# Entry
Amino acid sequence: MVPGSDGDVRESSHSSDLDLTRRALAGEPLAVELLCRRLACVPAILRDRHARYGSPLRPEELEEIQQETLVALWAKLPVYEGRASLETWAFRFTVLELLKSLARRDRRRNYLAEPDETLDTTPDREDPEPSLEPERLHAGLERLGPPANDIIRMRHFEERSFEEIADFYGEPLNTIKARYYRGMERLKALLEKHMRGE
Amino acid sequence: MTANDDELIASVLAGDLDPDSALWKAAVARNPALAKRWEELRTLREALERTGADERDSLARSKADAGPHDVASVRRAAPVVRAGARAGGRRLAYFAAAAAVALIVGFVAYRQFGGSSPEQDVFLGDQSDAALRATEPTLDVGDAHEFAWTGDAPPGGAFVVKVFELDAAGAPGRCVVESGSCTERTWRPSESELAKIPNEFFWVVESRRDAVTFEDSSAPQRALRSRP
# Structure
């Protein structure tokens, strides 16, 4: 069970994943082993997303980011609440870590080349036009914060119905729809400058 | 923008009101700002749907692509394993020092006794990577009367077998039996321990440095008691 204050979930929808994570963090060897197998998708996610961004890194750089991401992921596991499956949660974490690493790398390079142009933290890779790229949406959702970002993710990334989301939160359907609408309005405001190119 | 307009646009966004409905078209005709807001929200919703589909595809590809090397990478980054690796590093240093002493002693003996070789063990590397592998009982053939495995425990260490019942999802659940320390590579549960082992179960064997400190674990092995 997760604390049930406003905006928090009443009960985890992936309680077996949450239980596995807690047992692994408590040092239970079997759970650690099972968790390692479940999270083996993380290096593969990094390879997949890296290829999608046009493979800007050398193999050794990607390997270094993989190590950093895995260590950071283990450190972050205590805050996993079972709102999404382990793999979905790890996917979002991994994508954000990769983007942060790419942004840091770009800043370093830009700093060496052009010290005045170091501030855009969102990498433009395949499409240089202003647009709602997945990376920008992820960054916007992170800034939006819970519960609105979780509701939007459940709706569009996990394809859950509003009824399922309401059931998950233990809230009236209309409350969830209202939070979704307000969240979308705020997200729109956060991404406004990138929406002009759509 | 009125409260009614807000309600209308929220209904359209949630899919409760058809954007082709007369009610919505009349509202948009009355208030062009409403049409602009709806257009922006629709664009955002479509981008989210595209991103969601992209994410699901990427995750499915990644799950299919993940291999044993990736499991090993995750395992190496686990805090408990990293702590073990540091301890392994210290062990390696001790072994290296011992090997250096052995080489010096050997060289002196060779010079002194005309080439006779000393009866010394030669360290060939850290053995902590030796894979621990559960072998018997295996699915459909086990009677759970004897558990066997391959692999080594550290010097002075021991093995422990753990048996788990299946949870509702078919994953390893509660530990129902744990053996005492085993120095051989087999374990025979007692009658009372056998009675606790369900028809279908998972089991692992762990190696321990000093009968208490965890060193390594086999992958979980699913087994079926065909002769309870």
In short: Chain A touches chain B through 54 residues (CB under 8 Å).
